[in-house]
Amino acid sequence: MKRIRIADATLCRADNAFSFKEKIDIARQLEKLDGDIIELPEIQNVRIDTLLIKTISTFVKKSTISVAAGMTVESVENAKAALSTALYPRIRIELPTSPVSMEYVCHKKPDKMIAWVEKIVTFAKEQCSSVEFCALDASRAEPAFLASVINTAIAAGACEVTLCDDAGEMLPDDFADFVKKIAENINVPVNVRCSNQNSMACANAIMAIRAGASGVKTAVGEAGVSLESFAAMVKNCGNRYGFYSDIRYTELHRTVKQIGWVLDNVKSAKGSITSATPDDEPIHLDANDDKDTVATAVAKLGYDLSEEDKSLVYQEFLRVAAKKKVGAKELEAIVASVALQVPPTYELVNYVVNSGNIISTSAQITLRKDGKDLTGICIGDGPIDAAFSAIEQIIGYRYELDDFQIQAVTEGTEAMGSALVKLRSDGKLYSGNGISTDIIGAGIRAYINAVNKIVYEEAAQ
């Protein structure tokens, strides 16, 4: 199986509209995914950008931190200084390679550009052991020149090469042929960065992987390859075509959603105006709404219910709506509590969770299936993550975690907590709920409840 390296370039957005705190928040979310590389743009404000990169370096312990440079020697020096505390630093030399971009961006002819690439990559290699060369606008470069400049960069010390289809003019088959010709003739990994100009970014990226590329540049809320869509494609097609990634799929949707909130806040702050679509409209229901209206609202939340479950949901809806208005959260809880109620395949026997600020969080879960006790032990990023991972270890499968919510249902120090877990299997959404005075226990029960629904339906098919 071939491992696909996924780099995220969300923080390299062209508008650069994120605040300092928003950039930190996005980097924290990306670290949870166990992606290979977090990319940052070229340093513009030395004091602020250096502080940002050093701050990110304090909590990013798994991913490589890559900073762009290349137009000047000073840009490389700034990148090196900012990355001084990073565990896995990388300098990313980004330079144009098409005739038009070389002329208008760098004011250099082909021979001058090759000489500059040799000089700047050599210098970058002296500053950092990991140097990547990004051939900007590579899909419109002259083939002979592109081969020459790539070989020059590799000879100067580049450990990876990225081919950029910035114009987005190539269709998947053409892009695959383009990548194959380069990858076959060099001895370093090839990455790709694809434009979504023709809504082909993910298709181009997958075809490039099959043609010999081993890494893809992705982003959240960007015009290129969608992180969520590409990771899902790798997950769904990987076994068939022989590739995989290390992305934590159980965290993917939640992380992308949280980053999306940051992006939405940026758009709102800039005064962007977007037209509302039916799917964007909030859910507001009351006792006067009929069964079809409620069923439509449930479908909007992503659930595909049988007629029997729709009736059960509507009956419970009427009970709740008699006391108060029903929004999306209330409707989610109703679906989780009454729809697709099944005999439990797995039952919770006991759980132990150890957590603290000086130890890694661990969870030991024991479930009972067919009268036999099964135990899972896992370490995670917090008690909920560790507990869910232990359950996944027991059942032998990792479902996509679509959402996880906790709210108090009573008051005081002995308050009951209600947890809602939404899992996705084969594109279908399943929800489970759990109630306990212990929020971890509520989360565990909700997760098991959702898993039981999936297992029951799969067995019935």
Structural features, described:
This protein is of the alpha/beta class. The chain has 3 domains: 268 residues, Aldolase class I (TIM Barrel, Alpha-Beta Barrel); 61 residues; 114 residues, 2-Layer Sandwich (Double Stranded RNA Binding Domain), CATH 3.30.160.270. The chain is built from 15 helices and 17 strands. The strands form 4 sheets. An 8-stranded parallel barrel has the order 2-3-4-5-6-7-8-9, surrounded by 8 helices. Strand 4, helix 3 and strand 5 form a beta-alpha-beta unit. The two termini are 30 Å apart. The relative contact order is 0.08. About 3% of the residues have low confidence.
What are its keywords?
Double Stranded RNA Binding Domain; 461 residues; three-stranded antiparallel beta sheet; eight-stranded parallel beta barrel; alpha/beta; 45% helix; 3 domains; 17 strands; TIM Barrel
